[in-house]
Write a sequence for this structure.
């Protein structure tokens, strides 16, 4: 009796890349200790808490996945990639996405 091995097609694993608007569409400014982001296409102004401005600055370089974002933040802001930092960055990235300031590329 011959045994047949079932072959499953290879699934490609897609990384999720994130991006944000360029500076001419998303204006970030400081005012009395607050970070404000004015999104020109929607006309909305958002108040940002750390590390949201840092995330947006890192994404302006080029679209990137979570690992690339963490690496950029580590380089620019000396953020250690511990579990608490990762959870905070992931949560803030999700909030930025919900606000329409970041989207999946």
């Amino acid at each position: 009796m011959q045994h047949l091995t079932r072959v499953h097609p290879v699934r490609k694993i897609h990384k999720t890349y994130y991006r944000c608007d360029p500076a001419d569409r998303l204006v970030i400014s400081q005012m009395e200790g607050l970070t404000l982001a004015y999104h020109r296409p929607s006309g909305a102004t958002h108040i940002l808490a750390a590390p949201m401005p840092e995330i947006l600055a890192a994404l302006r370089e080029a679209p990137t996945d979570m690992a690339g974002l963490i690496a950029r933040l580590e380089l620019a802001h000396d953020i250690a990639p511990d579990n608490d930092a990762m959870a905070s960055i992931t949560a803030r990235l999700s909030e930025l996405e919900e606000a329409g300031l970041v989207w999946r590329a």
